User: Which sequence fits this backbone?
């Protein structure tokens, strides 16, 4: 079961937003990377999956997610979290009985 669940699926995949459409004017391929302007934007860029982009057509500027998840990847992540918590619970119960 585990082999068929995990086979060929990445947990996340990286996208290049420069080829996406602008959220404001819907122009295709008009986004380019923008530098962080202040400390808050630097934190967002460093600590999250968001980077700042600017539209060449309309001037829109904002954060866009560069790491995306699929339904299969969310299933795999939840499977691993459930497995980790299950093993932790079993280990705790064994240690309680031994000590």
Assistant:
């Amino acid at each position: 079961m585990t082999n068929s669940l995990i086979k060929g699926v990445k947990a996340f995949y990286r996208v290049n937003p420069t080829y996406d459409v602008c959220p404001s004017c819907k122009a295709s391929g008009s986004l380019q990377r923008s530098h962080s302007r202040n400390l808050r934007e630097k934190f967002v860029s460093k600590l999250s999956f968001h980077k700042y982009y600017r539209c060449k057509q309309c001037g829109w500027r904002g954060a866009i997610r560069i790491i995306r998840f699929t339904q299969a990847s969310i299933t795999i992540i939840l499977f691993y979290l459930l497995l980790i918590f299950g093993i932790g619970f079993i280990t705790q119960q064994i240690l309680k009985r031994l000590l």
Remarks:
- The radius of gyration is 21 Å.
- The chain has two domains: 12-68, 70-99.
- The chain has a mean pLDDT of 85.
